[in-house]
Design brief:
Layout: H1 7-10, H2 22-32, H3 39-48, H4 51-66, E1 69-78, E2 83-84, E3 95-96, H5 108-116, E4 125-128, H6 138-151, E5 156-159, H7 162-172, H8 176-186, E6 190-191, H9 201-207, H10 214-226, E7 230-237, H11 243-260, E8 263-270, H12 286-299, E9 305-306, H13 310-313, H14 315-321, E10 328-333, H15 354-363, E11 367-371, E12 377-380
Parallel strand pairs: 1-4, 1-10, 1-11, 2-3, 4-5, 6-7, 7-8, 8-9
Antiparallel strand pairs: 11-12
Helix pairs in contact: 3-11, 3-12, 4-12, 5-6, 6-8, 7-10, 8-10, 10-11
Protein name: Aminodeoxyfutalosine synthase
Keywords: 4Fe-4S, Iron, Iron-sulfur, Menaquinone biosynthesis, Metal-binding, S-adenosyl-L-methionine, Transferase
Binding site for [4Fe-4S] cluster: 84, 88, 91
Length: 402
Amino acid sequence: MPLLSNIENEYAGLIKDDSLSPGLIAIRDKVMQEQRISDEDALLLFESAPLSFLSVLADTVRTRLNGNKTFFNRNFHIEPTNVCIYDCKFCSYSRLIKHRGEGWEYTMEDMLNIVKSYDGKPVTEVHIVGGVMPQYDLDFYCTLFRKIKEHRPDLHVKALTPVEYHYIFKKAKVTYEEGMKRILESGVDSIPGGGAEIFHPEIREQIAADKCNADQWLRIHEIWHELGKKSNATILYGHIEKYTHRVDHMRRLRELQDRTGGFQTFIPLKFRNKDNQMSHLEESTVIEDLKNYAVSRIYLDNFPHVKAYWPMLGRSMAQVAMSFGVDDLDGTIDDTTKIYSMAGAEEQKPAMSTYDLVTLIKNAGRTPIERDTLYHELKDWSDHSFDEDTVYRGYVELPILN
């Protein structure tokens, strides 16, 4: 039975409920008429909208853009190091240089061996992101990306955030434009959305003062889009920010997307409070998490997709999020990332087989669609049945379609 027992049917009458406040009625009408909501509308949704109302509106936008589909891919991560020159207050993952003995620092050979360990397995993407350290400079990464492509040309390389690019370009004394062109030529296919945190300087200067600022983050993505390539965007929510800061963050993303159309997916990331300098803060509630997904989906009308990063959120909540605007659950991951497990996320060993993801999506009443990184649909798994003879808890259980 679908999770939430068909919440759309249960609350269908709410959309026609004129007992709502005039402001919410106006927002409802805008969404139903496919009109853009304003910053003030988004604030009102955060502050006053019933959760069921948000679910219906967000699911309306989700269905308009992607029908009943929920996407996933087969991917793995490489995290070159968790040692970092930056001191972000929210980070449980990184270790400062003075504590580098507590971390890891992969060599190029180490990383290439990780790629080679997936030879013969139908993964489509490697996601590369980690700490910022001097030895991982522009020449190092360009060589690494070229070698990955030489070894496996079909593997999509999604690599490095503007935080890393800002540092390595500055160290190499090249402009953002020149640096991103070199990155493209070395074999990078797209860039992830990390490092955005909260754009507003009032908050960013408190939690991540020493790394690239909002304008620099946005400019690097803009240049990448101008080169004809795609990227994602994130927000780190649920700490010291207010709703106004979340809306400001999304406004800047929506404005850039209006200019370039280069963003594919928006990924809200929940602050986790284990073993970091902000551990005294309470984490956001489940209600707040769902509200954030829904308002994001409604406000970011020019973003094709909203993703629930299941290793951060947990499997059950990822299912629920599909009724609040989410249409993507990331990928199989294969326990290759420690960024959120070290922060106390629900998934301490994040790995799901294709069977796991398909079953999770089906049980939420959605249509599971395997995609590549650029959202080309590889297979509709809705009519596929698994049995004990075909299910294998790993990457090699089922072939990828051409």
